[in-house]
Specification:
Distance between the termini: 112 Å
Strand content: 35-45%
Shape: elongated
Structural class: mainly beta
InterPro entries: Galactose-bd-like_sf, Pan_app
CATH architecture of the largest domain: Sandwich
Signal peptide: 1-23
Protein name: Apple domain-containing protein
Domain Apple: 56-98, 148-189, 241-281
Largest sheet: 9 strands, antiparallel
Radius of gyration: 35 Å
Number of domains: 4
Organism: Staphylotrichum longicolle
Length: 481
Amino acid sequence: MHPTTHLTKGAAAALLLAAGVSAAPSPGTAVTCENNASNNTVYTAQNAQFDILCGIDYSGGDMGAERVSTFAECITRCDSTPGCINVAFAPWGMCWLKNQNTTPSPNSGVWTAKSKAALTGLTCIDNFSDKKTYTSPGGTAFDIACGVDYAGGDMSSRNTNTFKECVDACGSTPGCVNVAYSAPSCYLKSAMMAPRTNSHVWAAVRKDADADPLTCENKKWDAREFTTKDNRVYSIGCGDDYAGGDMAAVDSATFQGCLEACDAASGCINVAYVAPRCYLKNVANPPAKGTHVWGAKFLRVNVPTPPAPTPYTCNPCSPVMLNPSFDDGTNSWTQRDVSNSVISSISAGSVSGSAVQVVSTRGYAVLAQKLSVVTGSTYSLTVDYMFSAAMTNCYLNAFINGGWFWSFSPRYEPTSVGAWKKSPVLQFTASACDTELAIQFVCTAGESVTMKLDNIKVTGGPTCPAKASRSLRGLERRRLA
């Protein structure tokens, strides 16, 4: 902070003498705002030129303050200090170095010198990087917003030397979606809140961040559906209080964080949020109106759909499956989209041959294989499977060419926990010969579970005609001769 009023000349001289600083300007010093003598002129220092602005103050962005004897000495200190781009000088001998050009304001007690050096890098000085895109070393893209503060949603804070260091810290921090930088303070945020104008703040927002923050302010999200990062869908009821059924209560800085806490709690089906308190509930009581409560009711899980298969050279007939049992050396399954999961082959024990297991913690994985099928023909699928625990938010799904047609969870089939279980006969009709079967494992709420899979069999369709070997046909010709 620096002063907003003058000291009298006598008081200024006394203060400077007490500090051991002479009140008289150095010989040969030409730059001064006495009687606005140097106003709107350019002062040339060793490294850069400075615009002189008498009676103008760029409040904020202070790097430090020190005593000097002249305005020229103050400018020289800035010229030799990395990051300094302007100074505020009080004529009684104080010099504030600054690394930001904020909104200027009149202040008759301040003499300002602003660097004319060309701006480079990531900075909001003179709005240099405003509305530009910056990509951090890890590949995360950010939109820069100078003078904007998304207040709230803080996950951590630190001091950084530059705006770039602050944004890079967000890019390498899981869950960070934006930053607020007011040098040297860097605030990492986990939620997008409503933007506010703040000339002292430099913001950077991940391009993939939710630009429509979840809030019940002004009933913004009332009667809408919100999907969390775990693909769980909630119905939002602003003013809905699901009284009773409390299983736990936690603190959350945001409404979205409250929903994510429900995601992570097995059995949670709705929440009541009274900031910062988040009440997790496992009973769906009818809602009562409470204007101070933000409610959310769990609806469903949106299961990610595997990508469409690549083109395939069609065969005229069955057999359709090359590897039903994951035997070593004959595994034709392709692993893909593996997230927070580990896939390995194991001995199946009571089931013949080998099996595959997936250890998953809030992740998913896909095993895919091409099928030789005939368009329009009907086929049957059976699967042997086993779960290590009755985790209610873990699922096994089957897709044909990206279209879902079967799903199960140990919450529905507890007999699959700790013991092999065979699926019912599942039928599908081939819509194209370049068909792909994809088996997907997914856990959505941070639950760790081992899923085992074996003996995936697809049968049906027309039978390939038998072909005689060349040696047999040659033998027949010799007999005829």
